[in-house]
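Q: For a teaching handout, I want to show students what a protein-ligand complex looks like in token form. Below are the inputs, and the small molecule is oxaloacetate ion. Please produce the holo structure.
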Amino acid sequence: MESTLKELSNGESVLDIKDKCGVAGGVEDMYGEDRATEDQTITPWTFSVASGYSLLRDPHYNKGLAFTEAERDAHYLRGLLPPSVSSQQLQEKKVMHNLRQYQVPLQRYMAMMDLQERNERLFYKLLIDNVEELLPVVYTPTVGEACQKYGSIFRRPQGLFISLKEKGKILEVLKNWPEKSIHVIVVTDGERILGLGDLGCQGMGIPVGKLSLYTALGGVRPSVCLPITIDVGTNNQKLLDDEFYIGLKQKRATGQEYAELLEEFMSAVKQNYGEKVLIQFEDFANHNAFELLAKYRTTHLVFNDDIQGTASVVLAGLIASLKLLGGTLADHTFLFLGAGEAGTGIAELIALEITRKTSVPLEEARKKIWLVDSKGLIVSSRVESLQHFKKPWAHDHEPVKELIDAVKAIKPTVLIGTSGVGKTFTKEVVEAMASLNPKPLIMALSNPTSQAECTADEAYTWSKGHAIFASGSPFDPVEFEGRTFVSGQANNAYVFPGFGLGIIMSGTIRVHDDMLLAASEALASEVTEDDYLKGRIYPPFTNIRKISAHIAAEVAAKAYELGLATRLPRPSDLVKYAESCMYTPLYRSYR
Ligand SMILES: O=C([O-])CC(=O)C(=O)O
Ligand SMILES: [Mg+2]
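A: Here is the structure, written as tokens, with oxaloacetate ion included.
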């Protein structure tokens, strides 16, 4: 002891160190941890079994004041908590009360993230029981603002960051994650966060938010969910100039360098977690999104939420809307503003559904679907210069530059906004839709709310109450001429949680488009007469866990039918089985 205090292993004396840092370690600083200077190494000791103080700080197991008297005795918690014992219900009431005190949405977001990091089960209990209220907090629109300001509000890291610095070491990085068994990864490279553009490393809010919905809406256990952000730099100059930016301060790597990092990532994931881990691509820019999906869909269990998830949800709304509009999908004419991931993904799935329901070939089915991009209507004279994912939509027509002129020329029954650019469904556009159709179907899908093509209020007012409206981000009900209109939220959150659950519970090894159609049909069948009366073509989120179980069952059924499910024998009642697989956030008793 004497010698430890006086002379450290590197030969420096305590006095030397005192000179350097101005403090000594104090009494009982046995391992020299406190008196070590910055250039000396120490061992970060910890205990492997959570009990006492560390139990209170482990978000998976912490119950705060809800630890019972017996648990406080058995787990060394005496004195570490005040005497009061509270129920989970009372904790929920308190936290909801506190959250509602915050006027600023971002403060609610931060409070929710703190709760997730402090007491995971309470976080999910709140989210499940108050889904309509809290979805806009942990998800769109607030998550968008959170990503924009992620560096400034950063407290504790969530998820796994894989940057160019980790090239050649991605497998080791995966092993640093505390959970060994992973079933779903949501990964972004931050290049197209919602309709907000390139937010680089700060896109992490998206995988974190999406996976919290996997658990809350789809019942996938939080421990098997892994949020990942791949940081290859950012082209957002504002972030590069921001002293609080948390990512690599360099321009985006592209081409081979990008492809190699992603290849290493995809292989490492498969090597570490096996064949049956679902990888959800989220908010990649168009070119990478299509390329990655095409490249990995035959070798990995991958799903692009912005292309396929959005498509499945929108198709569900369209199928449901037929009850209000009459006819079949093939009787309608669709016009899109935006020909990126969501636009072309939805268009392709509509065409596929038409071919499955009629004898119309795919080429013919596509002809009822028109897309407008930043250069105007996509027509055959533009085909040479079009990106490959737009080419199938280049139909014969003279060039049209503006959306309003495209509406007048094409006379769509359905108008869908997927451009990521807000305020583009102008009064003139909505009025034109209303003059062409007794019930124009208008979907303003871009997120967050600031990027919505029009608001619910605008859609109902400008169409004089005739529009059927749905949007990607939520809008409050609208009063118009004595009637209350409740719009639906056409957001991929309706599908991916149940879709993922269906894949996981059946051990499915590849995603097939027919599973997306199955999910659409399942979701559409959940819309009730009451919803239709209010003008909505999506069910409320309040019943989402029941809906997710139903979607999971239909997706799994399709996977078994296609021979892609590996969990055998097939459970006879897939809905019951899905429900039995779902995580519930009630506290467990500790022995
Ligand atoms: O996150 C959302 O709300 C929907 C979505 O995938 C996107 O807009 O990219
Ligand atoms: Mg997205």
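A: Two things your students might notice: The domain at 141-300 is CATH 3.40.50.10380 (Rossmann fold). The longest helix spans residues 305-325.
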